[in-house]
Amino acid sequence: MSAAVLARVRRLPRPRPGRVGATVAGTVLAAAVLACLFAPVLWPLDQSAVDLSQTRLAPSLLHPAGTDDLGRDVAHRSLYGLRVSLLVGVVAALVAAVIGGAVGALAGTLGGVVDRVLMRLVDTIAALPHLLLGIFIVAMLRPSLGAVVLSIGLTHWLSTARIVRSELLSLRHRPFIDAAVSGGAGRLRVLTRHLLPHVLPRLALAITLMIPHAVWHETALSFLGLGLPPHLASLGNMINDGRASLLTGAWWASLTPGLALIVVTLALATLTARWRDRLDPRVRAELQL
Amino acid sequence: MTRPGLAAGVTRPGLAACQVSASYGTQRVLDAVDLHIAPGETVGLHGPSGSGKSTMARLLALLHRPDGGHVSIDGTPVTGIRHQVPVAVRTRVAILFQSPRAATDPRLTLADLIAEPMRAIGTPPEQVRARTAELADTVGLTADLLTRRPHAVSDGQLQRACLARSLVHRPGYLLCDEATAMLDASTQAHVAAVVGEFQRRHDAGVLVISHDAALLARWADRVVELP
């Protein structure tokens, strides 16, 4: 009985440096995600509604973050902008993970010529500035959510491909894989039962690390006018629109979407950094995972 | 019994390495070496670190491609390695590694570890359960240990599970690559006894690899020295 109790106690998470930060980050992120999810129910927004009698009002009780040059509530639109940014970030990160995971798995398991060709392709694309490449991809398509997701997905899969490939290469010649092969496991079984389960945590980590990048990429594209159509709220669109109001002294039009962007991506980055710490083999042994 | 056109050693039953060479990059570790393990025989393989003992085991287990020469099983030369070898041939030779930690998937319980080679070839579940229990009993693992994962058992207990796993398909040849080097004396003796009992029952050939000459003198029928 005491052994079972001890084992349970040992499994409890220990206080570690960064835990407070991670809790704060988790709370902020959870609040942001919930607000985004339920925004259409709690606080519906007509994207094309304009009130020219209310332009550039300073923050007040009625408009906590002020209004922009078309009389739209900045706090309200920031919420919808964040909604788009998070959606694009998550979907684009998933697209990138699927492409990168497939390329990495092919290179890592087939090896030889396939590996060399695919990895040189990765090096070639990595040599191009990815914002430039992203702009090129969006410019060929019509401005839409899909184009932005594609632009991010097609430029952000490189690191995932490298991670998956190197994990597979290091696993492939471990004795436990040899033992499985020698015990009669076929190629497919070795891949699905012994290799992939070890790669998946790394892949999941790569996806979450990619989300903040993807959010920034979407913002950058929208800021340059290449992202979403201008009437749709997106953090990048809003920061760009607010730029014009800055000269008239209406600093609030860019401030709230900018803060939302910084706070949410920092929270995401903090959480993923902590998760990465937990995946480190030495730390993991300590945590008995 | 010699068939025309074949070298004398090839038709003999047994696991044989014929003039095998192996190198890593420019470093040659085995140079045209012959080794023959007859059914029921225990052969010791002795040599200093880096003399190619483990490479020889990996060659014989069809896990490493020789630069020259070939491996033959019961008179049939084997071409290819790993998945290129049919399952029925591959499972004739089992290998027991030095480090049970490295040789086990940390996600699997000991029971799953032992059952894995059976599931890999599609053995029905009730047979898998019965044989797992039988093997666990043979190597001395309790039911409680079988539900644990590698991080929650000792090296000795894990090596017993590895031994059970290597005996699953009743291999004709068992290669023990420093398999007892990390174990305490009583576990060492027990592993040797289990291997010996299996060998008597199934007339299996055993290769014992060690740098410990005294151990080989006790265990092996004859010892092959690698330079």
Automatic annotation (TrEMBL), chain A:
<keyword id="KW-0813">Transport</keyword>
<feature type="transmembrane region" description="Helical">
    <location>
        <begin position="86"/>
        <end position="110"/>
    </location>
</feature>
<feature type="transmembrane region" description="Helical">
    <location>
        <begin position="250"/>
        <end position="273"/>
    </location>
</feature>
<protein>
    <submittedName>
        <fullName>ABC transporter permease</fullName>
    </submittedName>
</protein>
<dbReference type="InterPro" id="IPR050366">
    <property type="entry name" value="BP-dependent_transpt_permease"/>
</dbReference>
<keyword id="KW-1003">Cell membrane</keyword>
<comment type="similarity">
    <text>Belongs to the binding-protein-dependent transport system permease family.</text>
</comment>
<dbReference type="GO" id="GO:0055085">
    <property type="term" value="P:transmembrane transport"/>
</dbReference>
<dbReference type="InterPro" id="IPR035906">
    <property type="entry name" value="MetI-like_sf"/>
</dbReference>
<keyword id="KW-0812">Transmembrane</keyword>
<feature type="transmembrane region" description="Helical">
    <location>
        <begin position="20"/>
        <end position="43"/>
    </location>
</feature>
<dbReference type="GO" id="GO:0005886">
    <property type="term" value="C:plasma membrane"/>
</dbReference>
<dbReference type="InterPro" id="IPR000515">
    <property type="entry name" value="MetI-like"/>
</dbReference>
<dbReference type="Pfam" id="PF00528">
    <property type="entry name" value="BPD_transp_1"/>
</dbReference>
<keyword id="KW-1133">Transmembrane helix</keyword>
<keyword id="KW-0472">Membrane</keyword>
<feature type="domain" description="ABC transmembrane type-1">
    <location>
        <begin position="82"/>
        <end position="272"/>
    </location>
</feature>
